[in-house]
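Q: Hi! First time doing this. I have a protein sequence and I read that you can turn it into a structure. Is that right? Here it is:
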Amino acid sequence: MARQLRIQYTGAFYHVTCRGNERQDIYRDNADYEIFLETLADSLEVYNVSLLAYVCMTNHFHLFLTTPDGNLSEFMRRFNISYTSAFNCRHDRSGHLYQGRYKSFLIDADSYLKEVSRYIHLNPVRIKKHSKKSVKDKIKILSEFKYSSFSGYVNVRNRVNFISYNKVLDCFSGDTTEGRRKYRQFVYKGLKEDPDSPLEVGKGYGIVGSSGFTEYIREKYLEKVPLKAQREQPYIKAVSVKYTPDELIAWFCKIIKEDQTEICRRGRNSTDRAILMELLYRYCNIKQPEIGLLVGGIDYSAVSYARKRLRLKIKKDTSLKQKFENIVDELSRLKI
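A: Yes, that's right. Below is the predicted 3D structure, encoded as C-alpha cells:
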C-alpha cells in the first residue's frame, strides 16, 4: 500500500492520530499517560510545534497542531519513536507500539478550527459505552476526563504550558471569561446536536477545507509532485477532482445507470440516495441543508441520519463497501 503523502509548509494546521498496533492499548496505567505527555511536551519544544488540542484515549490519541517551521514528519517521527521506546522499556516488551504510521489531515484553519478542536474534545464521550447516556452525564464525563486539553480551555487553573489556547479561543471573544464560557457552550452544543465529524470532509484525500483552500493546496503543492508519485498516491487525483452539485449528480446517475428523479423519489432506506448525499458532501463542499434540497427536499437532519446509516452499513457490508469505493474511484477518473 502506498504511503500517505505529507503536505508540509510553514504555518500548516493538522489533525493527527495514531492507533495502537492491533488496536491494543498504548497506555497501561496513569504513569504511561504522564510519560506520553512529558514526551509530547518535550518534542513540541524541540521542533517548535504548537499544540492546540489533544486527547488520549486508551488505544489511540488525537492531536491538533500547527507547524511554524513546516516540519510535521520530523516532529512525529521523533515523538512516536521516543514514546514507543519509553513504553517498551517500562513494560519489558519490544516491537511496534502503533499500527503503521500516523494519519494526518491538513486543516483549513479559517473554516474548521473550531470544529476540529471540538471533535477532539468530544472523543471521551463518543465511545460505545457512553452512547446511551444523557447529555448531563456526558458533560460530567468531559469535565472529569483527565487526559485531554478541554479542562484548560474552560478553567485557567487546569492549564498546562504546552497547549496554545489562544488560537481557538480567539474565535470566541478571546482568552477571557466570556470567551471560555462561549467555547464551553460550543462544545456542549455538540453533545446535543451530534454534528458530523469535520474529518469526513477530507476522507479520501486528507484535506479538510473549503473548495478555495483545497484548490490552493492542489495548485501550490500537489501539481509539483512527480508523475510517478501521483500514481502511487491515489488521493492526489481525488483532491484535484471537485464538482458542482449538478455535475456530480449527472455523473453519479450515469455510473449507476439510474435517473435522478427516480433516485430522489425513493424513501429514507434508499442506499443509492444515501451514497449520493455522501458524495455531494465530500466532493462539492456544500452543507447538509443544500444537499437535502437537491435530493428531494428533505430536512438537513434526515441527510445527516442517512449519511450516518450509510457509514455504519459500509462497515458491516463488504459488498456495499466495494460498491461505494468503485463509485468513488470512477468519479476520480472522470474528467469534466
